[in-house]
Amino acid sequence: FWKDVRIRFFRKKSAVLGLVMIMIILLLAIFGPGMNAYTYSGQDLSQKNFAPRVPGIEQFGILDGSEKMSTTTGTKIVNNYVEKGKDDVYYWFGSDLYGRDIWTRTWEGARVSLIIAVAAAVIDMVIGMSYGLISGYFGGKVDMLMQRFLEVANGIPRLVIVTLLLLVLQPGMITIIFALMLTEWVGMSRIARAEMLKLKDQEFVLASRTLGAGSFFII
């Protein structure tokens, strides 16, 4: 099965290109913030709004810190690195209004986004699927009680939950992940329940019960 999947996957150029791009983003999110001497929160107001400058490439007149500026007399080429005597300074993506390194901040933000995305997927798999599968498999009163609780949880606006958590807890990634644990699994649980209701009376499930398999083993 997996061999067939692998063959079909690598036959599609778009899929391979997408995989390569994802791997590049993943590697830069992991190692990008540590590839230079800057931190994501460090700032230097004397180096604000610098254009991108990359060592080595600048020798070819590309990404050398130069930028075009429009003035009342026309357009001129400006290089803040040269004008401010910062010949040994390099901002690969440039610097922002507060003199912060955009390269470091970009990949630090990508790292946080990926961590939250992985956390959301794990929460969906662990909480959402488990809740939905148990509810659909046992049915009856168990299903009714679990679905009523689900409706109550889904009826609370997510923005209200996140706002309350930010007021009670310190703002940060842990707070966001905790908010996901309270709200984001509802949709997955419904999908899992629907699949369980469709499959629980199939012949292979009945055969497993006949052979003495327990409920949670079947789930």
From TrEMBL:
One GO cellular component term noted in the UniProt record for this chain: plasma membrane
Tagged with keyword Lipid biosynthesis: no
Cellular location(s): Cell membrane
PROSITE patterns: ABC_TM1
Chief location bin: membrane
Bilayer topology term: Multi-pass membrane protein
Annotated ranges, domain ABC transmembrane type-1: 110-219
UniProt xrefs under SUPFAM superfamilies: MetI-like
Any Gene Ontology biological process: protein transport
Keyword Hydrolase: no
CDD domains: TM_PBP2 (cd06261)
InterPro entries recorded: BP-dependent_transpt_permease, MetI-like, MetI-like_sf, OppC_N
Protein keywords: Cell membrane, Membrane, Peptide transport, Protein transport, Transmembrane, Transmembrane helix, Transport
Regions crossing the membrane: 15-35, 114-138, 159-182
Alphabetical list of PANTHER family matching this protein: OLIGOPEPTIDE TRANSPORT SYSTEM PERMEASE PROTEIN AMID, OLIGOPEPTIDE TRANSPORT SYSTEM PERMEASE PROTEIN APPC
Protein's UniProt name: Oligopeptide ABC transporter, permease protein
The organism of origin for this protein: human gut metagenome
